[in-house]
Design goal:
This protein is mainly α. The chain contains 11 helices and 2 strands, in the order αβααβαααααααα. The relative contact order is 0.12.
Length: about 325
């Protein structure tokens, strides 16, 4: 009974603990401008992704594996932006960097689900492009609606399991510090609050990184190598041009996200990296992909571009 009481008291103390996040270092004269900029940026992200999601839902021509996977990638981006921007805007508005321990844990979970999910869906999208270009005659047999649903459910399940275990281990640790060393809450910053032995969690974290990052890089590299070989073997300029147009957008998004994520992960494990540089890497991961992805796909994917253009054209004409 005493052990249960002690455990309950410990959980209650953690639940009521107020943490202090890293200072934004914003001069009072610039606070209002940054508040407006952050609010507009988040509003634009919501608008761009809403247009993309509604377009994919409304148009039956876009009910294809590539666009359905893009739909899920967009949901991941919205999770990342929503996990970051409201808390940032609130910090500027109320001039405080305080956050409760449960809220910090929730923010960390949402942002990590965004990161892991985005990488997994980008990987699956590369496989979809490989089937479409290298095995076009078998595409509809291999990427059936049932197969696509299974793949999407598998990605979300793997994402939730990996991140769920990670935060279950982290949040179970006793904390003896209250200062978050990042601009937002994430697993490394939460783990640094504990004075207990965290080696097991670090090992699991490295295993998760190797599994997700390693498999993603391997699968994307192999699929694009196969696509390149297939294009070169056909010796048809039209085939190469079509493949580059189809895959170029995805490759740009994947590489930008992968580079951002890699720099962030490395910066947390090298003490020599400047804290300011580490925070810059951390912020770039949740700012740039959610903002740029819908623009890149909207501008580079002809079907989406034409659908959005026709929609707004009809709305303007009706007015």
């Amino acid at each position: 009974m005493e052990g249960d009481t002690s455990l309950n008291n410990s959980n209650l103390i953690r639940f009521m603990t107020i943490l202090t996040m890293e200072s934004l270092d914003i001069p009072p004269s610039s606070a209002f401008s940054i508040f407006i900029f952050s609010t507009i940026t988040y509003s634009l992200i919501l608008f761009f992704h809403s247009v993309l999601l509604v377009t994919i839902i409304a148009k039956r021509e876009l009910h294809k594996p590539m666009y359905i996977l893009l739909f899920n990638l967009s949901i991941c981006d919205l999770m990342g932006a929503t996990g970051f921007y409201p808390q940032l805007v609130g910090s500027i508005l109320f001039e405080t960097r305080k956050i409760s321990y449960p809220a910090c844990g929730l923010q960390g979970i949402v942002i990590h689900l965004y990161g892991c999910g985005s990488l997994l869906f980008l990987t699956v999208m590369s496989y979809d492009r490989y089937i479409a270009i290298c095995k076009p005659l078998r595409y509809h047999n291999l990427m059936t609606q049932g197969t696509l649903i299974k793949i999407i459910l598998m990605v979300w399940s793997v994402n939730c399991v990996i991140i769920g275990i990670l935060f279950m281990l982290t949040l179970s640790k006793e904390i003896c510090k209250t200062h978050i060393v990042d601009m937002y809450c994430n697993n490394p910053s939460l783990l640094k609050l504990s004075c207990e032995d965290t080696r097991a969690i670090n090992y699991y974290g490295l295993f998760a990184i190797a599994l997700v990052q390693g498999s993603s890089i391997l699968i994307v590299s192999l699929t694009y190598l196969k696509i390149l070989i297939t294009c070169l073997s056909t010796k048809q300029k039209n085939s190469i041009s079509k493949a580059m147009q189809t895959c170029g957008t995805h490759l740009v998004v994947f590489l930008s996200f992968e580079i951002n994520t890699f720099l962030l992960l490395v910066s947390h494990r090298l003490e020599a990296v400047s804290p300011h540089l580490r925070r810059a890497f951390g912020v770039s991961v949740v700012i740039f992909p959610p903002f740029l992805n819908p623009l890149i796909y909207g501008l580079k994917t002809r079907e989406i571009q034409q659908t959005i253009f026709k929609f707004f054209q009809r709305k303007i004409s009706s007015v």
